[in-house]
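Per reviewer request, we include the raw input and output of the structure prediction for the construct analysed in the revised manuscript.
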Amino acid sequence: MQTCSLCYAQSPDSALTCVSCQADLTEYSTTAVALKRFKANPRIRYVRIAVAGDACPECQRYQRAYPKDQVPALPIEGCSHEYGCRCFYEPILDEMFP
């Protein structure tokens, strides 16, 4: 399930727009918004895709750290878990303090 960052409604992984407010989920899902913030932060060098312990094989294939300009979009296309893609982004900081 994808969560809209504007109205917080949940939509299926396959949805391109929010079922409630019709926002573009490629831009306004909570994961898309998080990735934009991570990319804009100069202290973040890599972004890790983290998966649940019982993730499907397709999601497990994507579990690793990526340079922030090469991070795949979430949800993972081809996820076969009964509850949908439950992957999320984790930032990897280049430095902890200025």
